[in-house]
Structure formats: structure tokens, C-alpha cells
Amino acid sequence: MPMSSTQQHWLPHSETLFLVYTRRDVGNVNVPRWRAPLFMAQVDPENLRLSRETEQIVLPLVGDGVNVPDDVAYSGNSHPMSASPEESWVTDGEMIPKRGYRGDLLLSLIRWSKPNQLVRR
After folding, report:
1. Domain edges within the chain
2. Over the Cα atoms of the chain, what is R_g?
3. Rounded-to-integer distance, Cα 82 and Cα 60, Å
4. Quick check: 91 and 109 in contact, CB under 8 A?
């Protein structure tokens, strides 16, 4: 899957490696640098590319990124981290530049089906 974004961060798991990122999508074409939604996908270890089949939205685009992009909060100021072997978090300090730079601090919980052996209790 091709990437054209500067907003990306690694999320390691003992089973595999994930990337949290922003990218161009049909719903965000007019959002500067496609800064929403925030995606996550598994890295294919054989070809070192993202696996589109594993892609999920970690934090959604809220608003209309095609017709009213000035009201869309930008994502990408994110930080993925392991909270426990069973759970990782992705935090994001969103902002809406055209609306006085207001925004919220968001948290997305990722619950693993297999414990992350890289994290100690």
C-alpha cells in the first residue's frame, strides 16, 4: 500500500509490527495532508509493506472531509504505546486550525487477541 504521509508512528507487538498513520482516502481529499482519519495496519514482514487487508481506522474522521474540510479535526499528533500485554493505546491531540485551533485529546484502546510478549507487567 503506497504511503504519502508524514504522520506515522510504529506500534510493535511480539507477533508482528503495526504502523499508525494518515493517508489519502476518498473521504479526506480536501483535508490538508489528509490528516484524518487515523489508520493502523500490519506490516508484512516478507515485503516490508503495509497489508491493506489488516487496515483499520483507529480514530475516525469527524465531519465532511470533501465538502467542509475546515470543520474536520486534524489527527496525526498521535502516540501509540503499549499499556499492558493485553492492551495498547493510541492517543491523539486533534486540532481544527480554521476554528481557533480547538480540539480534543483522544484515546483509542487496542485489545490484543494474543498478549504482547514485548510488554512486562
Report:
1. 8-110
2. 15
3. 21
4. no
